[in-house]
Amino acid sequence: MRKPIVPFDDIWKNVVNAAQALEPIPDALGDVYLVRNLYGTVRISVSDAVEGDESCLAALQRLARRLHEVLGAHGVLQENGILFVTDAFLKSIQGGKREVRPNVYLVDRLVTASDWWTVGEPPFPGKAARYTLYSVKGGVGRSTTAAVLAWHLARNGKRVLVMDLDLESPGLSSAVLEPDRRPDYGITDWFVEALVGQGEQVIGRMTAAPRWAQDFDGDVRIAPAHGRESGEYLAKLGRVYMDTDVDPWPVRLHRLLMSLENECTPDVVLLESRSGLHDIAAATVTDVAAHVLLFATDSESNWTDYRILFRHWQQHDLAEQIRERLSIVSALTPEFDTERYLQRFQEGAWDLFRDHLYDDVEAPDSADGFSFDLDDDDAPHDPLVIHWTRGLAAGASLHDLKHSTVSLAYASFLDRFDRLARAGSPREQ
User: Fold this and answer.
1) 44, 80, 135, 184: which could join 205 in a potential S-S bond, CB 3.0 to 4.6 Å?
2) How far is the C-alpha of 406 from the C-alpha of 167, rounded, in Å?
């Protein structure tokens, strides 16, 4: 008879139970890493400095034997379950570690999605307020909203930098910039030129201002995905996300962001993120100290996808670090039965935040936790509302934004955004 399957989703639960039931580990052993590799099998990694220590080896063998017993096909034979590695290797895998008992850590080795594992401050913090426009699904109006926000902020005297980081589906520049005003270079050009030390030589030629912003008290600069001519766009795109020997992709993104902020000196930076759960989106959500506008519609598929992301943050103890950076956006709010739709949307958003990012406390100002009432209109789950209108349905309208059209669709959104901006992002507080 075959043994019952141990599915992938049960790996960490079984590993945690095995590690926590283990007798005390000798201090001489140092840190112990339980590493799930790309195939989903788990091995123990420790410093090769303890390889000859019999007491340490005995403790490791007990743990390896127990892991083999509880992991099924995701385990390995006891004799193959212990890896003695260099201290340099141990240091290289520490970024996504979780402690399950003193000096015992879980680590995932991933091809993608590893950037969702941490929430941190950028290595090169800027002076501008940063906002990321993100969604788990496309087609929810992020590009239009980036243009409207830039229009609104510039009319009120702000200097605004808009970066089109939805590189797999570029379109912001063509929707906002007239063909004769597009810059020579774009974001993909910077990434490939920076590989050979020419990044700073294109920075001054990769932003441009839309004609509709020329009479405003402020300023708008658009950094498009590509320049006036797309050139070998796919060949460049294939090199954008690579890690170099010196810097991983998120650090390269920070360098671009800082270079553009130094060049344009904006008050506000708007980052149009790629949609979905890929690492590329993660960098703009978790790593640039931006306030994140989460675009959603009231559909079960949207809430399901957001639950995947929120549950991940909850399980990896990241809720406290990320939750106050988030604000949900009701995108494409329908023209008819709007009140009932928004009530359902708010309840869905509250369920999402309450179940995964809020603490289970009665009062929002409790010293022991963090929570919000359903009807708290400054809470992350309370939506910034964008109304669907025919006037903004066509991308061409972004070349010539009209106050009446914007007011019809975005009046509520912009009022709430201004209140959010006055309160300040977590990085500024």
Assistant:
1) 184
2) 26
Residue pLDDT, tens place only, 128-138: 999 999 999 98
The token pair at 23 is 């007798």
How many degrees, rounded to 5, is the angle at CA 354 between CA 291 and CA 20?
A: 100
Query: Which domain CATH number covers 158?
Result: 3.40.50.300
260, two tokens: 């553009």
Domain boundary (89, 109, 129) is at 109
* CB contact at 8 A, 354 and 306: no
- Supply angle C-alpha 156, 161, 163, rounded to 5: 140
* 251 shares a domain with 124: yes
Q: What is the pLDDT of residues 69-102, one digit of tens each?
A: 888 888 887 777 888 988 877 776 655 678 888 8
| Domain end (from 64, 93, 109) | 109
Task: Tell me the pLDDT of the chain averaged across its residues.
Answer: 85
Residue (of 350, 308, 305) closest to 328 by Cα position? 350
Q: How many domains, the chain?
A: 2
DSSP codes, 245-266? SS--HHHHHHHHHHHHHHHH--
C-alpha distance from residue 61 to each of 17, 27, 43, 66, 342 (Å): 16, 16, 11, 9, 57
The pair of structure tokens assigned to 358 is 């809020």
pLDDT tens for each residue of 178-232: 888 999 999 999 999 999 899 999 999 999 999 888 888 999 999 999 999 988 9
Task: Identify the bridge partners of residue 63 per DSSP, sorted by sequence position.
Answer: none
Domain encompassing residue 34 = 8-109
Instruction: Look at residues 88, 84, 81, 72 and name the one whose alpha carbon lies nearest to residue 43.
Output: 81
- The full length of the chain comes to 429
CA 114 vs. chain centroid, Å, equals: 11
